[in-house]
From TrEMBL:
HTH araC/xylS-type domain span: 150-247
Protein name per UniProt: Helix-turn-helix transcriptional regulator
Record carries keyword Transcription: yes
Gene3D superfamilies: Homeodomain-like, Jelly Rolls
InterPro entries documented for this protein: Homeodomain-like_sf, HTH_AraC, RmlC-like_jellyroll, RmlC_Cupin_sf
Taxonomic placement: Bacteria, Bacillati, Actinomycetota, Actinomycetes, Micrococcales
Species in which this protein is naturally found: Leucobacter iarius
Transmembrane domains' residue ranges: none
Recorded superkingdom: Bacteria
Length: 278
């Protein structure tokens, strides 16, 4: 697809995505933070997927081809960073914690175009200093490349409630449990158990966003009891599934924040312009 330049384009953007809406595959010349002020946002690259609820922010370095998918009505805030600030963040995509202070700075930066360049720079630094103060969040699902691992992960994704062990799954894909365990460490960087827990939490975020109850979500995602689900979800997401579900209900009571002109932007046209200069 041919690219055009938009030299007058402001670096911060608001995009309002409907449930299940996807952005085109694109890349940017500048690293940027993508914050879902409401809803849940997935980031997908060739190396895997990341997922961010509204208390997390996705970091995407310059040059990474990616696309987004909204889960629930999503108010998506895009903050581009100069090289000096981008250099403080990881060299790969990551999910980072979003404190109340960083959240308000991001909302102010993306929602008030009248601020001076100096004020905008200070807000960016507030965001970066805050997100750098906490460790990277384990909400990344790496994409394996070995054919046996890919076949195994598809089996698990199709039936999260299945209790099959790695050995049992291995017999279905033609590899021993020991071989698969080694491949998980080499290609995915975590154990099979850790990967399956993260997959289940990813799916749980999406089900809760769709309005499924905590108990039904726990069952659908393969947990034997709600308590184990609550513990795993809270460790990865930073809040209980019940609290997360209530926060979604509060978001639904009010309109999404408007963009600068007061109208919902055209997502496709904005990404067509965003992918070039910034």
């Amino acid at each position: 697809m041919p690219e055009t330049r938009h030299d007058s384009l402001a670096p911060e953007q608001i995009l309002l995505l409907d449930h299940a809406e996807r952005t085109p595959v694109h890349l940017h010349a500048m690293g940027h933070l993508v914050y879902p002020a409401t809803g849940v946002l997935s980031l997908v690259t060739d190396d895997g997927s990341w997922i961010a609820p509204s208390n997390r922010v996705v970091w995407i370095p310059a040059g990474f081809r990616h696309r987004h998918r909204a889960h629930g009505a999503t108010d998506m805030r895009v903050v581009f960073l100069p090289a000096e600030l981008a250099g403080l963040l990881p060299a790969r995509p990551a999910v980072l914690a979003m404190s109340a202070l960083a959240r308000e700075a991001a909302l102010t930066l993306t929602g008030d175009p009248s601020r001076s360049p100096e004020s905008r720079d200070r807000l960016r630094r507030v965001i970066i200093e805050d997100v750098c103060a906490t460790p990277e969040q384990p909400l990344h699902l790496p994409e394996p490349h070995d054919d046996r691992l890919r076949a195994l992960t598809r089996l698990v994704e199709q039936d999260l409630s299945s209790p099959e062990t790695l050995e049992q799954l291995g017999r279905r894909v033609g590899a021993s449990g020991r071989t698969l365990s080694r491949l998980f460490r080499q290609e995915v960087g975590m154990s099979f158990r850790q990967w399956r827990i993260q997959l289940r939490v990813h799916r749980a975020l999406l089900l809760l966003t769709d309005g499924v109850s905590v108990v039904d979500t726990a069952t659908a995602c393969g947990w034997a009891n709600p308590s184990a689900f609550i513990d795993a979800f809270t460790e990865l997401v930073g809040q209980t599934p019940g609290r997360y579900r209530r926060s979604l209900a509060l978001e639904d009571r009010g309109p999404l924040r408007e963009n600068r002109s007061g109208a919902t932007p055209d997502t496709a046209s904005i990404f067509e312009s965003l992918k070039t200069k910034w």
